[in-house]
Amino acid sequence: MGKATGFLEYNRELPEKMDVAERVQEYKELYLPFAEEKTNEQAARCMDCGVPFCHSGCPLGNKIPDFNDAVYHQDWEEAYTILKSTNNFPEFTGRICPAPCEGSCVLGINHPPVAIEHIEKSIAEKGFELGLEKPRIPGVRTEHKIAVIGSGPAGLAAADLLNQAGHLVTVFERDSKPGGLLRFGIPDFKLEKWVVERRVDLLTEEGILFKTDTEIGVDIKANELDKQFDAIVLCGGSTIPRDLKIKGRKLDGIHFAMDFLSQQNREVSNLSQIDKQRIFATDKNVIVIGGGDTGSDCVGTSNRQGAKSITQIEIMVKPPLERAKSNPWPEWPMILRTSTSHEEGCEREWALMTKEFIGSKGKLTGLKVVEVAFKEGKMVEREGSEHVLPCELALIAAGFLHPQKEGLLEQLKIEQDDRGNVNTTNFKTSSKKVFAAGDMRRGQSLVVWAIAEGRKAAEAVDAYLKG
């Protein structure tokens, strides 16, 4: 490595965040500028560790020590070339990935790991700043026509590689703008939408055709698509949310997390649909049901809407602050994580199960919960622990079950696995010339996994078309 003693000389350091009182007044990304020389120092912390476990920690297989070395030597073009060889969209993963690579960093055994995610974002933005990220228009076209269904991270990655292979790619998106989860699911304070638009504009210049407001299976039937294209790639995501079918579920004030988040994203982008019921957290006691990233995004959005109080509850027990013996390095550390949204104001409760939604005159007023414990692998309620939390807005962030079955999947008559996801062999479905990638195939997962899935599906499609 460029500086063999860097991990001894420099501590882990990340960009400072805007003051909480200031950042909750807007929806912009909340990190302050970070001096370039400080990023060089962070890259210098990468060790000559012999076996870089960060490779296996990254679903994309990013060549992390290589680009860290280039950043330390201030060779941004080399760093960009290395990173782009494995990652289509580092400007996304550098902002929103939970960085499983850092969980596998060798330095992380007994020191804070290398700031890989920040370095990745820095390389991506340097690529645009220096003009390295520019349209790459294929010199030769194969005349094979491919339809990609869904413009989320998996769909964009598949479309990108297939287009670069010379195929004619059309991406169909049922929403009004491309981007899928990146545009309508992730709040702007984590990923501003100009970042998504910049990438989509670049892909358009490279020859990819985007058709929005088009739901395949409704606006265009599956048999029509089959006649027009030589291959079809399903990247529609896992969109059916897990519900809580308990007493009081139909009260006014109970919503799925993604409905709440997507409405706010549309509002920020001036794409709001006035015919839909607007969900507001303003001056309400908000309870977010679910302790994951989506729930955290609901917390941050509720803070910006001026909620009276915010409580996030999780049915599982509180994670430890440090790795348990049963969770050794280089496994993903199952530890307590505090997001920037939690820092802005939120009560967090663990081992609580929702029993009933309480209401008056058809409106939600409270949430009946009970404490639970886990004994011999079974969950049991703690006797006498039932109580009611005040709540006028409940946001269900309990994850997603499977892709939408009605419409396209039914028309294609595609086999599904026991979880209701699309069943594939090497990304090929049971239907001729139809492939699948991302959450639609593997179930709800990370954006970085979706990109990796899209890349692998593209390779399978390309091999299929070449015979």
Q: How many E-type strands?
A: 16
Structural class: alpha/beta
Number of helices: 19
Please tell me what the overall shape is: globular
Query: How far is the N terminus from the C terminus?
Result: 43 Å
**What is the typical, i.e. mean, pLDDT?**
96
Rg estimate, integer Å? 23 Å
* Approximate helicity band: 25-40%
Biggest sheet, in brief? 5 strands, parallel
Question: Approximately how much beta-strand content do the residues carry?
Answer: 15-25%
State the strand order across the main sheet: 3-2-1-4-16
Low-confidence stretches: none
What does this structure look like?
- There is one protein chain.
- Helix 3 crosses helix 5 and helix 14 crosses helix 15.
- This protein starts with 5 loop residues before the first helix and ends with a helix.
- It has helices spanning 6-9, 20-23, 36-44, 54-57, 64-72, 76-84, 90-96, 100-103, 116-129, 153-164, 181-184, 193-205, 222-228, 257-268, 293-305, 340-343, 408-412, 439-442, 447-465, and strands at residues 145-149, 168-172, 209-211, 231-234, 240-241, 254-256, 285-289, 309-314, 347-350, 352-360, 363-375, 378-381, 387-390, 393-396, 400-402, 434-436.
- Strand 11 (363-375) and strand 12 (378-381) form a beta hairpin.
- It has a five-stranded parallel β-sheet, with helices on both faces. The protein has a five-stranded parallel β-sheet with strand order 6-14-7-8-9. Strands 10, 11, 12 and 13 form a four-stranded antiparallel β-sheet that branches.
- It is α/β, with parallel strands linked by helices and 467 residues long.
- The model has no long low-confidence stretch (mean pLDDT 96).
- The protein has 19 helices and 16 strands.
